[in-house]
Design a protein that fits this description.
It is a multi-pass membrane protein. This protein is mainly alpha-helical and 496 residues long. 66% of the residues lie in helices and 4% in strands. Strand 4 and strand 5 form a beta hairpin.
Amino acid sequence: MALMGVQLVVSLLAASIMQRMAPHFSFARWLLCNGSLFRFKHPSEGELCALAGKQMPKQTRRDRKQNGESKPLTVPKDIDLHLEMAPVKMMDALVLRFFLEYQWLVDFAVYAVGVFLFTEGYYCVVDASKEVNIGALWCVLIVFFGLKTLHTLTSHYFRSEEGGERSVCLAFGFLSLLVAMLVLVVREEYLEFGLEPGFSSLFDNLEIFVRQQGYAEWSIPVTKLSVKLFLAAVCAYIGALLAFPGLRLAQTHLDAVQMNSERPLIQILLHMGFLSPVVVLVLWVKPIARDFLANAPMGKTSVTLVSSAAFDSMRLWIIVALCALRLGLTRYHLQAYLHLAKKWVEQMKKEAGRIAAIDIQRKVTRVFCYLTVVTLQYLVPVLLILFSTLSLKALGDFSWGVGTEETPGVTPAVVMSTAAPVLSAGPDEDEDGMEDMEEDIQATAARLSETFTALRSVLTPLFFRGFLSFLTWWVAACQLISSLFGIYFHQYLMQN
């Protein structure tokens, strides 16, 4: 197995370029600061006093605090306030919360796509079946980093003592646990994830591998029921992480559709992007998707419209296209979020009474301060679906084109040699340390090669097909559930 091959060199080169280019050019910074997003500036106390028809106090807010005057400056709520718009600039974005996490994740995702495309082309040109797919490793890392980012954002909701955010996360977690337990008992004839053959392949190959290492009496003390219970717990965790991203998606979707009321094409694309998780769910419902295309009813007979291998490829293409559509609609959703400041001011004008000037400034400023948080909540679920699909293609031995269907994962576990590799020694005992270092590198490479060979023999493509298919489907299901609840909440509960 070639460890120091072309793939690893390109991977290290991509990591080096990402590190060196980050201070000069960043796709994440360009996404926010390319001049297409506009924020609203908070009004100053002088502007509020002028709109209220009163003279600006000579003492500033700091002077009033130093003199012991705690009474804030108040203005009527129904003043004719119009917020000033300004494009989001780089210096404005650098002070946003979680900006560094956002920049690193988005840039890493862009370079991961580049490495994945290179490995796909490399596998088309060269027979690299014995090499480790570096592009798949980058995609798996994006999935883990995306979940970690959502965990960081959700932990802040748990630390909050107000607003009931913790209760919302727990409620969605328990709901996801119940739904996952129901989904996991559905037979493969209806939901074709391939979990049953995947776990069977994992257990069989693991038992063979362990016995080859000398543990003849060893047996796997894990049942399929315990594995499904653990998987249901993981699903509940993912459902809790995707609760607020789904609620936020519903809010920005409604606002974006309203903002583009005079652009029907954009509205259609927004609706398609919002309902794209439904398409992802249907693609794994066997009677609706695969059976309908493979045995389409035509009178008293059935016609095969698409072969099974072609359907697998078509499913990958559809999911990638839907993710590309949602990524293309990012600007509309972010601008809809930034318009919450204007929306709040318009709502304030309809109310009676007075309000402190500092409260107006805080409300307007707070919307912009959470821009990167909202961006992460919109992008991370899309990246999870996209890169889990790319990992499914690479690790599950699928093809982008129509080809012959093969049965993956039938190769038994390969015997991993326990003896140390034989290395050539120098004729003299007093050779310099360079040769010893080279031998150590060769030994390390040999051990890594044996480790990857063992992993490939246990974690077969049949296992990855089942696990990654279920992961992709479940992320789409969680986002659909939370976003539909968000639509109901913002459309009906908030108006009552």
